[in-house]
Amino acid sequence: MTVADRRQDDSPTNGVNLRQEVRDQIGEIGEAEILVGIPSFNNARTIGHVVRAVQIGLAKYFPEHKAVLVNSDGGSSDGTMEAVRDAVMEDFGSVLIRHRIEPSFKLALPYHGIPGKGSAFRTIFEIADALGAKACAVVDSDLRSITPEWIELLLKPVISGDFDYVSPLYLRHKYDGTITNSIIYPLFCSLYGKKVRQPIGGEFGFSGDLARFFLTKDVWESDVARYGIDIWMTTTAVANGYRICQAFLGAKIHDPKDPGADLSSMLYQVVGAAFDLMEAYAEVWKKTECSEQVPTFGFRYAVGLEPVRVNVERMLEMFSLGVTELMDVWRAFLPDEVSDFLLVAREIPMEEFRIPDGIWADIVLSFALAAHRKLLSREHLLRSLTPLYIGRTASFVLETVDSEAEEVEEKIERLCQIFEVKMGGLRDLWD
To answer: What domains can you pick out in the chain, each with its CATH number?
Structure first.
């Protein structure tokens, strides 16, 4: 079925899943061409800046389009929704040359359902559907680097370019986003054949048609409602043939995290979602032969990035302890040469420690196959990946300590190529 066929088949929900009080609020609006959603939970400190940036972006770049800003809140207790209602740009004349023609509206409301970002997005999708929105965007509520230009870049490809999905493209510190760089991006490219650099970026643009398609999926009582919504949206759009592009947004500035810190929960959630999607779209990725670039919009420019502190010595201690305690578990599904390598690697001095790209690709794909075959409990399996991921990150840090951003990006692209080469073996073993 083509995208056009789906658009004819997918009838809008017309707000039937919305609570009465929400329907009353949007009933006063009637229809809207553009919707921007901001999910939140206890973000009173930062969300005012985000709301003002969105308001200016809508007024500056889409003055002739009726627009709605929707804050979908998870029950904040710090005054987040009040901060949204109070956030106004009092002097639009200082940033705008022309005045807004069409009205814009602002809604702040709690979502219902399983606590999580996915449930917040579901409410945003439902309101977009009920209002008949043509183009939508979502942005995180804790952004410090958002500018009004982000709104143009996320919405313009949908409004003017006939794209259905706009994924963000950021510049990030070389040690920021290591789960994306070492697992999600290489895995996504090799599975679905599209070089979407940040498939779990957090900010997205999408068409109203795609929002309605998302609502037809029976995932809202699953882990997608709690977490994993970002990778689910990107994968669902690509795997179902929607037109996808990227928009360069500059720097994404947020509170930096040490990649060697305890990221087991995040790793479990994100990688678990990616593996679940492999099950759902196996017949799609089995046919993928190679990856290709996707159209990218926006002017590329250099930006200053906040440093990310890394404790490599502590990371290697965690890796070594993991090998000692978990090798009996890993031997059930890792190739013998990988297990033997890990036993040797735990004794290597820090200056010489490396986990080669080929070994790392074998590890990730072996974990994916083990999850598919249900060789261990899902949680036990995924959490056991943590020390290996930390070891790989330590290796990456040691290899790139003197590398510039361009060299680091080339290394990540080489890792993607190795994943693609090894994906053929996974396809042969999957069934």
So the answer is: 3-297 (3.90.550.10), 312-424 (no CATH)
